[in-house]
Amino acid sequence: MNAKRLAAEKAVEYVKNGMVVGLGTGSTATWAINALGEKVKAGLEIQAIASSVASENLAKQYGISLIDFSELNIIHVTIDGADEVDPKGNLIKGGGGALLREKIIAYNSKEFIVIVDDTKLVNTLGKFPLPVEVVPFAVDLTLKQLRNLGSTAIIRKKDGKEFVTDNANLIADCSFGEIQDPDKLNTSLLLIPGVAECGLFLHSKVSQVIIGYTDGTVDFL
Ligand SMILES: O=C[C@H](O)[C@H](O)[C@H](O)COP(=O)(O)O
């Protein structure tokens, strides 16, 4: 059984006619968009906003109606994956480089449902290097500041070239070791000029975590 798909399909059960839905990014969120797309084909009426160009394109393929931000009054629910989840529901996100748009959408949603398989569960965040979106200008200075905070900040590369986000920024992957206080680290990172956003999503913003297991069961946090 595909555990990511299981969690995604469980989350999509929460989506009802008339809702505005935030679409996440990544392999787990893709399962959710697939499931929503099938429901839309079967008559479900929703509007959506996407957290990446990739998710927007997928939604378009299914004929999911996309709403412009200028017309948006409310996002009822956002469904998105994560790279790590701690027992309180704090997250690391951004493995796919979409963290800035994801965080804006998640933090402006009434409900934020996180979908993961059980491999994403950790006792303490930090094994997965924390993705930090940085503006390209004077990036070496920003990297120095990130290293001063105790991380090994490395600019992400893809196919031998710098990975560029949908916002034309770069990603610094920052290993901090175990992150004992995600709240404090989030604040410290956002105080660095040149940091656009970091991949720490705090538990207070997470409505529910749905965990899929390969034995076909789901669990909730
Ligand atoms: O930037 C990407 C996102 O934060 C993803 O939701 C996260 O990396 C999890 O991805 P996946 O579902 O592919 O494991």
Automatic annotation (TrEMBL):
Pfam families: Rib_5-P_isom_A. InterPro entries: NagB/RpiA_transferase-like (IPR037171), Ribose5P_isomerase_typA_subgr (IPR020672), Ribose5P_isomerase_type_A (IPR004788). SUPFAM superfamilies: D-ribose-5-phosphate isomerase (RpiA), lid domain (SSF75445), NagB/RpiA/CoA transferase-like (SSF100950). The keyword Glycosyltransferase does not apply. It catalyses: aldehydo-D-ribose 5-phosphate = D-ribulose 5-phosphate. It comes from the Bacteria. The active site is at E102. GO terms for molecular function: ribose-5-phosphate isomerase activity. It is an enzyme of class 5 (isomerase). Its EC number is 5.3.1.6. Substrate binds at T25, G26, S27, T28, D80, G81, A82, D83, K93, G94, G95, G96, K120. Keywords: Isomerase. Pathway: Carbohydrate degradation; pentose phosphate pathway; D-ribose 5-phosphate from D-ribulose 5-phosphate (non-oxidative stage): step 1/1. Belongs to the ribose 5-phosphate isomerase family. Catalyzes the reversible conversion of ribose-5-phosphate to ribulose 5-phosphate. Homodimer. This is Ribose-5-phosphate isomerase A. It comes from Pontibacter toksunensis. The gene is rpiA.
